[in-house]
Amino acid sequence: MLMLVDCSNCLTPLQLPPGAQIIHAHCRSLPITHFSSAAAIPIILLFPRAFAVHPRAAAAPSAHGRKRAVVCAVSYKRSRHELKGCINDAKCMKYLLVNKFKFPESSILMLTEEEADPFRRPTKQNMRMALFWLVQGCQAGDSLVFHYSGHGSQQRNYTGDEVDGYDETLCPSDFETQGMIVDDEINATIVKPLPAGAKLHAIVDACHSGTVLDLPFLCRMDRNGRYIWEDHRPRSGVWKGTSGGEAISFSGCDDDQTSADTSALSKITSTGAMTYAFIQAIERGHATTYGNMMTAMRSTIRNTDGGAGGGIVTSLISMLLTGGSLGKLRQEPQLSANQQFDVYTKPFSL
Fold first, then answer.
1. In the annotation, is 24 catalytic?
2. Nearest CA among 145, 166, 323, 158 for reference residue 257
3. What is the DSSP secondary-structure string of 284-326?
4. pLDDT averages per 10-residue partition of the chain, 350 residues
5. Are the beta carbons of 97 and 275 closer than 8 angstroms?
6. Is residue 81 flagged as an active site residue?
7. Is the peptide bond before 48 cis (omega within 30 degrees of 0)?
């Protein structure tokens, strides 16, 4: 059975590898040793050497080049939580990254329930190791992407670090037995280590995902495109930013909203509404600035929109994303970042 211990310094939950009683980790650059209640055995270094816990996990893509991505889709097959559009989202996102933004296919780690390799399935342990891998050896000039399509949730926060009193979470395929991945851990794993000159984009198509990276600032935009940056820095003073790099998150909805897995955007199959809107905004030429991206994505979700237009991505996925009757989905995509910026002048790029 897997065991979790809380960091005595920042309270981030840490997972003990099977058979281990000690984790030696780095918390805010300070070496911290965490003990379980069992007798001590040789130390296992869990962070930041991703995919080092199990020998077969070395099959992860080599971190070569300047671009790297983790694309994760959780469909919860044969359960009461099953989603229908997540695999489509992952395949479309991978194609977008490779063909539109020139990500090397060998530097994209896919986690789906269709994978034959058990270490490429979206379990809690595999998702954690994939996030470690994403930032491993990150340096100036690197562009990292984390895309997630699946269930999101919330749980009560007892530290006072959340504006709404809740932590946001992602739900791995085994979340009912192994638990969820909390925003504090996601922030500590892929946000805090980012060095100057590196950038991370997260595209999170899940419920309650507005602040799922726990970034310090949330762009609150109205339906006319006017916006202000809300300060979400914890009152405790805990640092939620990067180590000099840039982190930006597109999320499917606000923290108190749900995100649709719907066939309303396609007459053929289900897709995540936010992933569809993200891809379509790029295909239709709205990916000039972050503000234009957000305006286009929200317009797609709010309004009925026929036809997906043409383009390198749409040419492949037109059978999935041919447009249809959208109706009124009650979700508003959100933008958050580690620092404030002018969303209508900052160019969008991955």
1. no
2. 166
3. TT-TTBHHHHHHHHHHHHHS-EE----STTHHHHTTT--EE--
4. 53 56 51 38 31 44 73 87 84 94 95 92 96 94 95 77 78 92 93 96 81 90 91 88 96 55 42 84 94 91 54 41 42 89 96
5. no
6. no
7. yes
DSSP-derived secondary structure letter, 106: G
User: Which residues share a beta bridge with 217?
Assistant: 231, 337
Question: What is residue 207's predicted lDDT score, i.e. its pLDDT?
Answer: 75
Tokens of 270: 């289900």
Per the CB < 8 A criterion, the answer to whether 62 and 107 are in contact is yes
Q: Cβ distance 249 to 202 under 8 Å?
A: yes
Could you tell me the two tokens for 99?
Answer: 């063909």
* 3-state SS, residue 7: coil
Q: Which residue among 34, 147, 151, 201 is the active-site one? A: 151
Q: Quick one: which H or E segment has residue 15?
A: strand 13-16
Strand 217-221 to strand 152-156: parallel, antiparallel, or no bridges (unpaired)?
A: unpaired
Q: Extract the tokens encoding 249.
A: 């998150």
Per annotation, catalytic residue among 207, 208, 232, 253: 207
Q: How far apart are CA 81 and CA 143, in angstroms?
A: 33
**CB count in 10 Å sphere of residue 201:** 19
Which residue from 159, 209, 181 is spatially nearest to 336, judged by alpha carbons?
Answer: 209
**Alpha-carbon distances of 43 from 54, 94, 281, rounded to whole Å:** 15, 37, 48
Count the Cβ atoms, other than its own, within 10 Å of residue 182. Answer: 21
DSSP 189-200: IIITTPBTT-EE
Q: What residues pair up with 30 in beta bridges, in sequence order?
A: 27
Joined tokens for residue 326? 């959208």
**Helix 290-302 / helix 273-283 crossing angle, nearest 10 deg:** 130
The one-letter amino acid code at 193 reads P
